[in-house]
Design a protein that fits this description.
Helices cover 26% and strands 31% of the residues. It is α/β, with parallel strands linked by helices and 363 residues long. It folds into two domains: 149 residues, Carbamoyl-phosphate synthase small subunit, N-terminal domain (Glucose Oxidase, domain 1, 3-Layer(bba) Sandwich); 209 residues, 3-Layer(aba) Sandwich (Rossmann fold), CATH 3.40.50. It binds glutamine. It catalyses: hydrogencarbonate + L-glutamine + 2 ATP + H2O = carbamoyl phosphate + L-glutamate + 2 ADP + phosphate + 2 H(+); L-glutamine + H2O = L-glutamate + NH4(+).
Length: 363
């Protein structure tokens, strides 16, 4: 069945439909990872987005049990050059097409994804509609123009109720803004006693759980759309050690008096070089973000930049000057991508340990 993608600027791509037969509207973005399509399509940070992959062959190792980053993918559509209909891998349990059908997500294949990526790079991420090729382009374009993008993505993907993932180590409250399971897995690996809480859990409720540390997860959308989380972070700052990833990093910056802005086309891929300003070392990182912390806005705050992106110089890591709190814009849990930055979870363990020791000394 033929389907077409119409961009906000009127560009039309006609290709082969796969996955669910749905019409959908969202923001069109690209990801440059060469593998890891299962993790990408199940990353809740893509809520509301139509994602195209620059790697040309997608689906060849199928879908397995282990690599989901969420149970219900929030992605709006998956756009690829060539969809492999034969999946071959010992872990394979279904094809990409079957998964997308079950989850109600439409796919589009056989389009020039290089052209699509170049348009986004040149003009920035833009809205798009994916529909049957038979639909009238003018009518669909008009519908696209009058449909605003939703701004409640975090509410859509955050857990509704708190749940525990027990361990014998540090108690960590993990604020779920659209958490990738990889983050929970990293905490579990370190035997943390994790309690995952909804995005709008109050500071008071979090205190009652008596955590040794707070983890701020990744998540979709604009950090300014979750003001209640910013207030919660403000209130807990300095009391409890804190580690934030991606949306968590942006919310931390806003809570500390900084500002964020929407990037032209963002960073999405598995090979983004990031420089640690203290050691001068460069790590390859996994990234997925469309907003960034504005470095200039940090003057006068009590946070400092610890890491920057090599490609465009944007802020990639922050640290509080007075309190035990640090954050990164990239994904130390990888899922998918390089694991160079996995040590940051160990740094978080160390931070909690140091704070505990200080508390005992003062007791
Ligand atoms: N992966 C994330 O947490 C993304 C953060 C935010 N939604 C952005 O696009 O910048």
């Amino acid at each position: 069945m033929k389907r077409k993608l119409i961009l906000d600027d009127g560009t039309v791509f006609i290709g082969e439909g796969f996955g669910a037969n749905e019409e959908t509207i969202g923001e069109v973005v690209f990801n440059t990872s060469m593998t890891g399509y299962q993790e990408i399509l199940s990353d809740p940070s893509y809520c509301g987005q139509l994602v195209t992959l620059t790697y040309p062959l997608v689906g060849n190792y199928g879908i397995n049990r282990d690599d989901f980053e969420s149970i219900t993918p929030a992605i709006k559509a998956f756009i690829v050059r060539e969809e492999a209909d034969f999946a071959s891998n010992w872990r394979n349990e279904s094809t990409l097409d079957e998964l997308l059908k079950v989850k109600g997500i439409p796919g589009l294949a056989e389009i020039d994804t290089r052209k699509l990526t170049r348009i986004i790079r040149k003009h920035g991420a833009m809205k798009g509609i994916l529909c049957s090729a038979e639909m009238d382009t003018e009518e669909m374009l008009e519908k696209l123009h009058r449909t605003p993008l939703r701004r409640d993505q975090v509410e859509q993907v955050s857990t509704q109720t708190a749940y525990a993932s027990p361990g014998r180590g540090f108690r960590v409250v993990l604020m779920d803004f659209g958490m990738k399971h990889g983050i929970l897995r990293e905490l579990n690996k370190r035997d943390c006693d994790v309690i995952v809480v909804p995005y709008d859990t109050s500071a008071e409720e979090i205190r009652r759980l008596q955590p040794d540390g707070i983890m701020l997860s990744n998540g979709p959308g604009d950090p300014k759309d979750v003001p209640q989380a910013i207030e919660t972070i403000k209130s807990l700052l300095g009391e409890i050690p804190l580690f934030g990833i991606c949306l968590g990093h942006q919310l931390f910056a806003l809570a500390c008096g900084g500002d964020s802005f929407k990037m032209k086309f963002g960073h999405r891929g598995g090979n983004h070089p990031v420089k640690d300003l203290k050691t001068g070392k460069v790590a390859l990182t996994s990234q997925n973000h469309g907003y960034s912390v504005d470095e200039k806005s940090l003057a006068g705050t009590r946070i400092e930049v610890t890491h920057i992106a090599i490609n465009d110089g944007t802020v990639e890591g922050l640290k509080h000057l007075d309190y035990p709190a640090f954050t990164v814009q990239y994904h130390p849990e990888a899922s998918p991508g390089p694991e160079d930055s996995n040590y940051l979870f160990d740094d978080f363990m160390k931070l909690m340990e140091d704070e505990k020791r200080k508390e005992l000394q003062h007791a």
